[in-house]
Design goal:
It contains 3 helices and 3 strands; from the N terminus they run βββααα. It is an alpha+beta fold. The protein has one domain: Zincin-like (2-Layer Sandwich). It has a 3-stranded mixed β-sheet with strand order 1-3-2, with helices on one face. Strand 2 and strand 3 form a beta hairpin. The longest helix has 13 residues. It is globular and about 25 Å long. The chain starts with 8 loop residues before the first strand and ends in an 8-residue tail after the last helix.
Length: 92
């Protein structure tokens, strides 16, 4: 399945409070710390953010789309949450 999203700007930088962020004007930022993590966690964060261009919340539709793209996405979500318990990093 392919997500067609128009990205205006993409950045990888230190982010102390979250793994990634996106804006409605097509800007995506990813935490540089992701580069040290497993690819399945990258996939989770990337798909998570890209889906927010279509669904701005974490409701039922967002969860259905996450499952359609990543299958059992909760495994990666749980792993990130455990890493997020480090001081200063939230899941999103």
């Amino acid at each position: 399945m392919k997500l067609e999203v128009d990205i205006v700007w993409l950045g990888v930088r230190p982010m102390h409070n979250k793994w990634a962020s996106c804006s409605t004007n097509g800007h995506l930022n990813f935490n540089a710390e992701l580069l040290a993590l497993d690819q399945d966690l990258w996939d989770y964060v990337i798909v998570h953010e890209l889906l927010h261009f279509f669904v701005p919340n974490h409701g039922k539709l967002w969860k259905v789309l996450m499952r359609a793209h990543l299958g059992d996405y909760e495994v990666s979500e749980s792993r990130l949450k455990s890493l997020s318990s480090a001081p200063g990093i939230n899941e999103h």
